[in-house]
Every structure is written in C-alpha cells, then in structure tokens.
Amino acid sequence: MRLLFDQKITLLIMEKSIPRFLLLMLFLVGSHFVFGQTGNPQQNKLPYNDPEFHGEIGRTYKDSKMDWPEYVEPKEGAPNVVVIMLDDVGFGMTSTFGGSVPTPHLDSLAGEGLRYNRFHTTAVCAATRAAFLTGRNHHNASSGFLPEWSTGFPGYTSLIPRSTTPISKVIKYNGMNTAWFGKNHNTPDWETSPAGPFERWPTGMGFDYFYGFNAGETDQYNPVIFENTLPVEPETTPAEGYHFMADMTDKAIDWMKLQKSISPDKPVFMYFAPGAIHAPHHTPKEWRDKFKGKFDHGWDKEREITYARQKEIGIIPADAKLSPRNENIKPWASLSDNEQKFYALLQENYAGYMAYTDHEIGRLLQAIGELPDAENTLVIYIVGDNGASTEGGLEGTLNEIKALNGIQSTLEENLERADEIGEPGSEPHVPVGWGLAMNTPFPWAKQVASHFGGSRNPMVVSWPKVIKDKGSIRSQFLHVIDVMPTILEATGMEAPEYIDGVKQKPMDGKSFMATFTEADVPEIRTTQYFEILANRALYHEGWVAAHQHTKPWRMDLAPGFEHETWELYHVEEDFSEAENVANEYPEKLEELKALWEEEAQKYQVYPLDDRGAQRLTVPKPSLIEDRTSFTFYEGAVRLPETVAPNTKNTSWNMEAMVETASGHKDGVINAIGGSSAGYALHVKDGYPTFTYNYFEAEVTDIKSSKKLPDGLAAVKVDFQYDGGGPGKGANVLLYINNEKVAEGRLEATVPARFGIDTFGVGVDTGSPVIKNYSVNEFQGRIAEVNIELKP
C-alpha cells in the first residue's frame, strides 16, 4: 500500500537511474520526507517533516500528475498495546500472586502470559505514572511526589518537562491511535480548570482521546469526569447502578471496537488506569457481600495465610522468610470486639473492590480477545502503582477527607455508620494493619519507598503471538521506567532525540522484551534508586540499602535528617527483606549509601523534604494568585479547589444576583466540596439556605425566614470567621436584598481541603454537599456570583 523511501532508492539503483555515490546524499536529505519509516536516522525527530511533492504540475490538470502525501503508519506487524495500571494494590492481595482475593481474570491472563515477581514502582501513584509515561525516573520527570504536594524545585514541580515527552506522543507521531481511560494524576491540579493550560492534560500529552478524572482519586459513584477537556456527567445515577469502574470499561471497549471497525489492521495504544482500588473504597454491595466473615481471623493471620500460599504457588522462593510484623500495629488478638468488627468490615469492602475491579477488567480482556488481531496484542498489566495504602490511619475511616484533614472519627461514630461502608456518600479506607497485610511478604507500604512493601508490585504480561512459555514466572529485577522502552521495541519504534523541536533527555529505562521469550536472560537493571518523602533505598547487584524515614499515617514523626538509620538487605538471598544485615556488612552498606548519593545527584532528587501536610500550603503557580475579589457566571462548573476562592480559615462574603419566577426558585446557586465536606448556597422550597457540611459529623442549615421574591434579587452570605488558627468556628449571616433573614453559628470549619470534588455555580456536580436537594440545578437565572475574601 505504501512505497517506503529505501524501497524507492533500491529500485533506482537497480535500474541504474542514479549513481551509487548519490545514495548517501539522498538518504540524508530525503529519508525524513517519508512517513512511516522505521529504523532510519530521521526517526530521531518527531513529528516527521511533511513529505516533498514528487508529482508533476503543469498548466492544467491534464498535463499534471498527482502525488498524495503518505500517511504515517506503524511498522508492519506492530502489536496493539494495552497498559493496565491499578491503584494501591499490594503484592499479596490478588489470588494471582498468592492473595486471598479471587481474581480469576488476572489469573487467566497470567496463564496465557507471564508473571513478574520482581517488578518495582516508585511507591506512590503520580510518581509511578510519570515514570511509566516518560521512561525516566520520577524526579527526572519532575514528579518526585504528588502534584498537590509539589514544590518549586526541578525534581518536584509536577510539571512533566517537554524534554521527557510521554510515550503517547512517540506512538501517536508514528501512526498509532491512542486513548487514556481513568485516572490522570499527572496534570498539576492548578492546571485542571477549564482555563488550562492543556499541554499536560492527556490530550496535550499525545492521547487522541481521554475519558477520566484529573486527580489522585474521585468519588466512584459521583465522579468528576472529563471527556478530553470538557466536563461530562454520568448518564445514570448511583441509584440506577452507576459506578465509574463499569462506565470507563464500557467507554474503553467502545473506543477499541470503533477503531477496529474502521481500520482492523491498524494497531492501537490504550492506557487503562482505573481509580480502583484507591480510596474511597466504593464497592457495590453484591461484591462486598462475597467476603462476609472472610477476614474475621485478622491481619496477623492473613499475613501467614498469604505467605504460605505464595510459597505453595511458587510466586516467592521456597526459602523466602516472612518479614517481621510492623511494631506500630496492634496485634489483632489485642483488639476489642468492636474494633475487630469494624476493621473486618472495612477489609471485606476493600477486598470486594478488588474483586469487582477484576470482574470489570475481565470484560475488557474479553473484548480484547475478540479483536481481529487479538493474537498480536501486547497487554502489560501492572497490578498497582505502589503497595497497598496505609493512609486510612491506625483506626481506618469512613470519611477519608476528614482523616486527611487530621480529624479522626471515634470507633462509636464509625460503628453507627457501619451499614454505609462502600455505599454512596461514604469514603471508607482500611486501617494500617490491613494495608500492611496486603503487602505480604514484604515490610511497609505505599509511600515508604525504602522497602518493597511500598515499591514491589505484581505485573502480568500477555502477547499470544510472541510469548509461548505460558504461565511462567520471570524474576529479573525491573522498574516501571522499563515499560516505555519495552513498548517501543515491541512496536519497532525508537526513542527520538527531538520531539516537537525539544531535545529529549536520555531514556532511563531499558527494554525487558527479551524476557518474553527467554526465562533466564541477564538482568537489564542492576542499579535503581528509590525516594519518596525522604524514604530512600538503593538496589545494586542483589543488595538493598534502605532508610525508612516517614510513616504514611503520621508524617510528623519523621526522625529528622540528623538521626537516620539505614538498613541493609541481601535480597539475592533474602527475597522478602526479612533480615537486616547492616551490622554484618558495614562496608557494603556504606558503598550503597554512596551510590545512592550519586544517583540522587544525577536524577535531581535533592532537596529531600519530609514535611507532611505543610507541603500542601507551599505557594504554587496559580491562576488566582493574590486575588481577593471574584466574579463568576452560570457555566462556571468543575473548578478544582485550587482555582476557586480559598474561603477556608478566613472571613468572606458572597453576593449572588438571581432572577426567578413563582414556582421556579429552587436549586444550587454556589457549592464547593461534596459529601465528605463542603458548603452550598441553595434555595429549597423557595427559601434561600446556606448549608455547611463539616465532615458529615455536623451539617448546619442556615435558612432564610423569608422566601426569595420574584424577579431580580440579591442573596448574600456574610461569613465571619473567628480567627486564631485553622479550622476555627464562624458566625454566618444571610441576607436577601440587604435585609438580614437568617443567622447561624459554626463551631468548627474545614481547615485544609474540602475534598475530591469541585466548585460550581448553578449546580452541584459530582458528589453532592447535601444528600437531598429539592432541586440541584438552579431553576432561575444567575446573573453573577461575587465573592470577596477578607483579611
């Protein structure tokens, strides 16, 4: 169908139409004009230049000859590529890797492909995803931690540089269509508003299509969804069975089928990244019911059960030891009956979420299996972007945002709401003990990059056309940065030197494609550093030096940089990091510590920063910097909290000019936050009302004594903050046309973040602040909403 440049040159030489000495000149100046060429020097610049016109142009079409420019096409035989990346799944959770949660579809994929038991992530989500997308270490891609915690240092801005362009652009510029479904935590939250900029949105990073959310998490029943760059609402409600996991799976299947309907021979690239199983753990009832009573034995026994099963199925070596239990966690047997009851319920819900996710991904895998080129489809399934999370705290929670604001619910309060676990309106998260158990046999968990509990995740790879050693295990030490080079090799593409005119940093990852066909190929990765929140490790030739610095549930307990204790593990012999041999091999420890310093300097890891929530308040780029006066109009919806007026810990007022008619006055004027916390100025049964949701523990309605009059009217909220620090109380006054119509008192207010929802005028999208609005979308007209922040 296409005639490549080298084929043209060959024909000319064979026909002796050109002297051989002109071959080199023609190759150097002409080959970049040809689209779809692979393996030539001009592939080092993307996108390709427009091809020259090789037809003939006469005075009229009759004495002219057409020459259509050729389309960019991938290399003949290039596979479809599907990368699946789950969230917050520990090494020892799925049945495929010895866990107690049945994952039959992952089992089936592994049976047709390979399981990797020494694959590593960065230990936290956004950093891992940046490393996968760019093929560079996370600090090298300016993604040393989470966007919300970013700082103005090169390794921590969360602004993926143009010099580390994501794989999606390379693939797109080489002729494959690309799509991203689910979680995007690689766009800084201050850039996720309708004002952009959009360069670091998925569609700006080389994806033709995006359907998902721009944050670390979203409410799975009431998600904050974008299609490309436009906000969209689910077509059904939670009461009708809506769940984002099923929705995004449907969209992914539909996209893939449409692509193959139009061009069945053209390979595609899909990045499928569910919010599952990150908190909030929103699990349909039928799935959590499957695990009733299955975890009553507790987290200590669960570690032993998983460890024994992992040995039995060979996912860990026969001589691997179970790492010591974490001394920060109470033994299960020491807990009260009520504690055991509540914690077991949270784990049943967490396990159900994983099982439900496997079911939905099973639908995607079935659809892939029905493709006309299913045999030539490479699936790379990364089971978690880090280890299982311990961010639910020592006691677990039903309101994750409340916990992240540093406010813990009592056990009694949680048990009163036990029936709500996993339901719409809840935001459950398991306690630390269960998070650690899900990382069996390794120590520690998510965020703790010093140990494999944070950084070692299961990976399954399937490619029926290539992988013949089906159901086998691979044990080469690999890292998520190695995925991009592997995909490039599999598709016959090269990492270009320039993309969009920007010189690219060298690739940090290396291809592990050789492991697809050979079990015992040498390791490509003999050295790898790790760092998250000053938790550090260095792997080198079978040894790991490790310094555990912060605790995910209490980062304020960091020891300080002057009191660091390093550990040493000989992981070539000690698979699970069960024995610290630092005292036996002090020289080896010092060698690895020095090597860590070299890697840190090389990849812009410094400065180390062990601050906790303080980093949320570090000044960041902002579209609203220093503004105290705001005017919004109808249509201002889905604004992230970072570009909305910061009404926390200060006095402020809001005045809305609205126009209504009799019988059509209800609905939301302005709202921010969601079911976890937030506020809404709304009209109910004709009465303006200001509702403040303080983490569901206290929902205060300040209701007008008078109905909203017909026609144009002004509704004003005067929020008088007590001062004296974050989270203090406030007096709230409500006015209609400058007449005071209500007054109320808040004894406490939200100190840090309202949560995972957004700011909007005229409607409360996503998870609602109020469970039962009489009407959500405002029935009248909103001329403008003015908000003034006071010192």
Question: How do the helices and strands line up, and which of them pair or pack?
Answer:
Blueprint: H1 5-14, H2 22-30, E1 45-46, E2 80-85, H3 104-112, E3 114-116, E4 119-120, H4 125-134, H5 167-173, E5 177-183, E6 209-213, E7 225-227, E8 230-232, H6 244-262, E9 268-273, H7 285-288, H8 299-313, H9 337-369, E10 377-382, H10 400-404, H11 411-416, H12 432-437, H13 452-455, E11 459-462, E12 472-474, E13 478-479, H14 483-491, E14 498-499, E15 502-503, E16 527-532, E17 535-540, E18 543-547, E19 567-569, H15 586-602, E20 629-632, E21 652-660, E22 667-673, E23 678-684, E24 687-694, E25 698-703, E26 711-721, E27 730-736, E28 739-746, E29 759-761, E30 781-789
Helix pairs in contact: 1-2, 3-9, 6-9
